[in-house]
Amino acid sequence: MPEAETIIAGFLVLTVVASIVSRRIRIPYTVMLVVLGVVLASLSASSLFGVNLILANLAGGGYFVALVLPPLLFEAMMTVRANELRVVINPSLALATLGVVIATVVAGLFLWLIGALPLGPAFIFGALIAPTDTATVLEIFRRAKVPARLSAMLETEAGFNDATGIVVFSVVLASATVSHPELLSAGSEFAVLLGGGALVGLLVGFGSELLSSLVEDSLSETIITVVCVYGSYSLATYLGVSGLIAVVVAGLYFGNLTMQTTLVQKARGTVRSFWEVIAFVANSVAFIFIGLSTDVSQLVAGGLAILAAFLAVNAARAASVYPILSAFSGSKVRIPRPWKNVAMLGGMKGALSIVLVSSVPAALTDNGKVTTMVLGVAFLSITLQGSLLFRYADSKFPRSHRSKKSESEAKLTSTLAELEEIRKMREKGDITEDEFASWMGRKEKELADLVEEMRVTNQTEKVLRSRWKGIRSFFNPRVRRKRR
Q1: pLDDT tens digit string along 62-97?
Q2: Alpha helices in 43-176 (DSSP H)
Q3: Which of 2, 103, 238, 388 is paired with 326 by a 20 to 30 Å CA distance?
Q4: What's the pLDDT band for 206 if we cut at 50, 70, 90?
Q5: DSSP secondary structure string for all residues of 305-319
Q6: Domain 62-400, what architecture?
Q7: Using the 8-state DSSP alphabet, how is residue 133 labeled?
Q8: Phi-psi region at 374: left, alpha or beta (left = phi > 0; alpha = psi -120 to 50)
Q9: Rounded Cα distance, 119 and 435, in Å
Q10: pTM (2 decimals)?
């Protein structure tokens, strides 16, 4: 059995390799991670990374949810601005609640009537796959260039739908073993999970703000945010409410109040950079986990079932997204057709469903068919659906359009245009000075990263050339004399 440090080192090496390769061959980083995970799981070398140990601990023990999802949610929610969320909060919550129920029913009926799956396993699969996967959605919309309000709507849906998904999954699982599930009890349980988690997140967020007001150094401020994230999750879980909802609310509180009023400017940059790194590592673990969980031979053997399941999942997503968003199109927020299409494609499935399926008794999975379908749908969702989403976003939203210039130059042009748009919003009074300062801070960092990205290729060549000359001069006295 490999040591813990070997496993950690192996994961870090994989993330670096995936990042470099994905940039060179220009495929999404998430797809590269999943592919590397699949290759690793298919090789005998996978034992070096403790694949079986990781899968058992992450899935069976619930450590994946407890360790990986909270930093992802917090980092994403702290960047969502209140003025954006205020406009889209109603459709977000509708998708996260009613949408999950509709998707479960439609997917279950589809597989029962068309996919020839028994009623119980069909609805268990529907409940497993109905909620969008937090890690997948946050990563996709971090990289896809879509309007800020659309991104806020779908990221918020992903953050809030876990409570609904867990309750619906529990009801369906119970109904497979008892004849009369208590729907009223399920409804009250959901209200407690959601409301209790939100209250805990609000209290912990306020407490963290008070602590931040007592310190001024960046290190202490960063430690306080760590306590805020895992403290809100742990306290909510201990009280029997949703820990993930608590983290979502704590992240919104921190990003819109604490970050703007309590933290000094230097600490803001440090805290933001820290959580970007942590979110990157957590995302990497999530997608490698999906790859490690995927057995290629199992997917090939269950190809027809996986295809039927993928069609059922997309039909279920369409049945929930288009009616719900159409119902809100006449309200204060206008939801154009391209937004609805992005929301449809953005209903990504992934690691959360894989974690949940590991808790289903084998007798209820129709000889393992449900497990195979979940793994296959997660794989197709990331590799196929994710690519389609990027292409569609590029074609429909001008800021993400790629010209004949290099990709880095196109990104640079897009970022500069967005900076100009934010400046105009401030002049019109659409955003406050604090919101403008926060936006500018984030965009200036993004601009610096893009400039560095454009420089890195030439810089690598310069480093190699310089080091080679140094080695030659060290071992060859003639070269040293010539240089003198």
Answers
A1: 566 777 788 888 888 887 777 777 888 889 889 988
A2: 51-55, 63, 69-77, 82-96, 98-113, 119-129, 134-143, 148-175
A3: 388
A4: very high
A5: HHHHHHHHHHHHHHH
A6: Up-down Bundle (1.20)
A7: P
A8: alpha
A9: 51
A10: 0.70
